[in-house]
């Protein structure tokens, strides 16, 4: 009898633990493309717009700048980080709001979003809700957080991207491309590890097994 009671208790515990998360198991991150995965023409195309984002960052002395590009290759709008006005006014959020105001539309199928630094959870989710087809970044969250001690929610954008199945309508995940002009965009971000009193500084908790893709000169 005791054996059956113990089995019932174990089953009850297992069921209760299983119900802590009502959703399916976290899916595998979507594929993250790097410059070496692209054709020369594709790489040059994306570098053109990342250069615009980089130049804007240097001109405005802004860590996070965003450029939104239409399917025909024209720049639809840009955005700068404005965290002095609101903690949620990241470059991507400002750019998306600018585009909606300028072009009077709120969905962006076929459009590409370029950002100097990999999008945080909030910004990549916003890009998903807005329906962007491609999200392209220069410097990774791994570099900003682990190597430069810059405060970030330590979740990679392609992990968030994998959750697109929960969206209504066309819920295909965006194509995420990382490392475009990384050698340039990395220089935008100071090493906050050497500035412990800076408001951007954090003490990162990172795995030592993480690897970076090799970059061509």
UniProtKB/TrEMBL annotation:
GO biological process terms on file: tRNA wobble adenosine to inosine editing
CDD domains the record matches: nucleoside_deaminase
UniProt protein name: CMP/dCMP-type deaminase domain-containing protein
A Pfam family: dCMP_cyt_deam_1
InterPro entries cross-referenced by the UniProt entry: CMP_dCMP_dom, Cytidine_deaminase-like
Annotated keywords: Signal
Species of origin: Heterostelium pallidum (strain ATCC 26659 / Pp 5 / PN500)
Any GO MF annotation of the entry: tRNA-specific adenosine-34 deaminase activity
Signal sequence, renumbered to the chain: 1-18
